[in-house]
Design goal:
It is built from 3 helices and 8 strands. The chain has a single domain, classed as Jelly Rolls (Sandwich). The chain is α+β, with helices and mostly antiparallel strands. A hairpin with a 2-residue loop joins strand 5 and strand 6. The chain starts with a strand and ends in a 10-residue tail after the last strand. The protein has a 5-stranded antiparallel β-sheet, with helices on one face. A 3-stranded antiparallel β-sheet has the order 2-7-4, sandwiched between helices.
């Protein structure tokens, strides 16, 4: 099953929590046990899994990626703007996809984990492709004890 989720991002660099949209795609797939791949088809964006319990964490992630790859004018490639060139590097560091486990029809995430879309050159209309693979069989962690 394949679905595309769409959303708008804020200006500059931002993180958007897309966990609920990804979980909705998993639920509508009918897959009970398998894997969910979230893929970002943008060269200035990425996807990661991290904590969203404390909103300051999201700010720290944005700040640290900005510190690691500052916007500057001496990139060899400047497609549109210096921030666009920096966004290409940031996107490659974080990565375009995440593969998540699906059990009993739900994403398997830790208590504080969320699926986060990282935009490095917003604001923009963005999308993420969600592919769910697996079985519609019920998953039982303790079969026939």
């Amino acid at each position: 099953m394949h679905q595309t989720i769409t959303f708008d991002t804020g200006p500059g660099e931002s993180l958007t929590d897309v966990t609920d949209q990804v979980q909705a795609a998993v639920a509508s797939s009918g897959v009970r046990m398998g894997a969910c791949v979230v893929f970002v088809p943008h060269t200035t964006a990425a996807v990661t899994v991290n904590s969203a319990l404390d909103p300051a964490t999201l700010h720290d992630l944005v700040d640290e990626v900005r510190r690691l790859v500052p916007t500057r004018t001496n990139f060899r490639h400047i497609v549109d703007t210096p921030s666009d060139a920096a966004a290409h590097v940031k996107s490659s560091l974080i990565g375009p996809s995440e593969t998540l486990v699906v059990a009993n029809g739900e994403l398997v995430l830790g208590r504080s984990q969320r699926v986060l879309f990282f935009d490095f050159d917003g604001p923009r209309s963005r999308r993420a492709m969600v592919t769910v693979l697996g079985s519609s069989e019920r998953y039982d962690e303790h079969p026939n004890d």
